[in-house]
């Protein structure tokens, strides 16, 4: 589990996220926010992942317990939207990297064209070769670790660590430590949508929690610190670079870095597209949707969207949307599973109609209302009333407590159902894989 999560998040998007912080805030503060935000986000990630270990359910299937069979369409739809955005961002980064290499060797430049070609390749791999890419991803991660070591060595030989701490913060940029903290937590939230999917394969709860927690923390802190350090190195050398621009790093550390970026993006984005298709198909257990038609439709949308290079300039806003969409969802699911349902989901969770989780015509309106309130609170605390502790943590607390308040009276009913089903439990969480 450690290696799976280490490989999963050693990706270029995480590395480039580290380039967003300096010179908006100083290097030391940025490093502290990266560490703190990663640990906070990991708590949510491992709690959701542990539900997958206990029940054998994927993340979007887990949401059926709190939202209902039909109510879960809400987080599923949000998941597809977020994954589609990720597929666009990844394709653009791959396209820009390929364009850099081609331009350096031939003089031809067309980043939009290469973004489209990269995403078309991703869609093809997701349909035909995703299993091979999944097996190759750890090797890509190893390659990235080698390149990361090279960049760290180059950066700290070129400038002493004390020099990085002297880079002055530019307050005119309007970037704050709180915003940095929110971005790092939002990164963890974006990976939490896959936590139960991966951790349901863990051999034990301890293996899932410790492996995924340490793996995610290690990879995220390393990758973000690399981006932070590499970008700061360019600034110390007197260079000018745009944050979240892979060509700035490739120009300083060589075109092999651009190739590594391309390979890692191909591996990760293939699984993103594959996961997006499965989210749509798995929304209903008795769905008549088939993989290939859904993959072609979503693939076409992802290819068209990869031409929107301006999205890279709105990356922080994109992460804010992720937080607003999914922080309330995971707060609700954690409160529902661990407290309201007392750590037990019955096999009724697999039913599209009827059963313990039917609620009102398949929708738990308490969860839907809390989701709306939590998302709105996140928006207000980000754009209207700037919170001194950011938007993510208050949004989580508000959603968690409000859901408990609205659902507390149902604990007794679900406890009785859990006792009735106890003899047939396939695992500690109520279901076997």
TrEMBL record:
Tell me where on the tree of life, at the top rank, the source sits.
Answer: Bacteria
Note whether Methyltransferase occurs among the keywords.
Answer: no
Tell me where the transmembrane regions lie. 31-52, 73-96, 108-128, 140-160, 172-194, 214-235, 255-277, 289-311, 317-339, 359-379, 385-406
Query: Topology versus the membrane, per the UniProt entry?
Result: Multi-pass membrane protein
Q: Does the keyword Ribonucleoprotein apply?
A: no
Keyword field: Membrane, Transmembrane, Transmembrane helix, Transport
- Return one GO MF term: cytosine transmembrane transporter activity
Q: Name one GO cellular component term.
A: plasma membrane
Q: Where in the cell is it found?
A: Membrane
UniProt-listed Pfam families: Transp_cyt_pur
Checking InterPro entries in the record gives: CodB, Pur-cyt_permease, Pur-cyt_permease_Fcy2/21/22
Q: Which family does it belong to?
A: Belongs to the purine-cytosine permease (2.A.39) family.
Per its record, how is this protein called by name?
A: Cytosine permease
The record lists the organism as: Brevibacterium casei
> What taxonomic ancestry is recorded?
Bacteria, Bacillati, Actinomycetota, Actinomycetes, Micrococcales
């Amino acid at each position: 589990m450690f290696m799976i999560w280490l490989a999963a998040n050693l990706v270029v998007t995480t590395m480039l996220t580290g380039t967003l912080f300096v010179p908006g805030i100083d290097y030391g503060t940025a490093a502290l926010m990266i560490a703190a935000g990663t640990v906070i986000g990991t708590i949510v990630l491992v709690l959701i992942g542990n539900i997958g270990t206990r029940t054998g359910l994927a993340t979007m299937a887990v949401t059926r317990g709190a939202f209902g069979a039909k109510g879960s369409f809400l987080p599923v739809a949000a998941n597809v939207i977020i994954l589609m955005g990720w597929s666009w961002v990844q394709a653009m980064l791959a396209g820009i990297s390929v364009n850099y290499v081609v331009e350096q060797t031939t003089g031809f430049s067309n980043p939009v064209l290469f973004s489209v070609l990269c995403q078309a390749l991703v869609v093809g791999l997701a349909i035909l070769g995703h299993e091979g890419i999944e097996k190759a991803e750890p090797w890509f991660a190893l390659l990235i670790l080698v390149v990361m070591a090279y960049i760290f060595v180059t950066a700290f030989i070129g400038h002493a660590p004390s020099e990085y701490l002297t880079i002055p913060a530019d307050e005119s940029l309007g970037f704050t430590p709180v915003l940095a903290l929110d971005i790092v937590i939002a990164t963890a939230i974006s990976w939490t949508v896959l936590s139960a999917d991966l951790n349901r394969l863990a051999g034990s709860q301890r293996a899932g929690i410790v492996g995924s927690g340490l793996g995610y923390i290690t990879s995220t802190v390393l990758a973000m610190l690399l981006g932070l350090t590499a970008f700061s190195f360019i600034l110390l050398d007197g260079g000018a670079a745009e944050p979240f621009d892979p060509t700035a790093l490739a120009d300083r550390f060589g075109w092999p870095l651009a190739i590594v970026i391309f390979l890692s993006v191909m591996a990760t984005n293939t699984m993103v597209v594959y996961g997006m298709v499965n989210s749509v198909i798995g929304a209903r257990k008795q769905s008549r949707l088939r993989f290939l038609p859904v993959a072609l439709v979503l693939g076409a949308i992802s290819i068209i969207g990869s031409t929107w290079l301006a999205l890279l300039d709105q990356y922080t806003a994109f992460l804010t949307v992720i937080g607003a969409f999914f922080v309330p969802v995971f707060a609700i699911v954690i409160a529902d599973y661990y407290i309201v349902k007392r750590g037990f989901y019955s096999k009724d969770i697999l039913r599209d109609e009827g059963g313990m989780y039917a609620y009102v015509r398949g929708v738990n309106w308490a969860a839907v209302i809390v989701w709306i309130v939590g998302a709105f609170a996140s928006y207000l605390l980000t754009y209207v009333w700037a919170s001194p502790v950011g938007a993510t943590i208050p949004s989580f607390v508000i959603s968690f407590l409000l859901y408990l308040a609205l659902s507390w009276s149902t604990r007794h009913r679900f406890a009785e159902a859990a006792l009735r089903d106890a003899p047939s439990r396939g695992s500690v969480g109520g279901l076997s894989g």
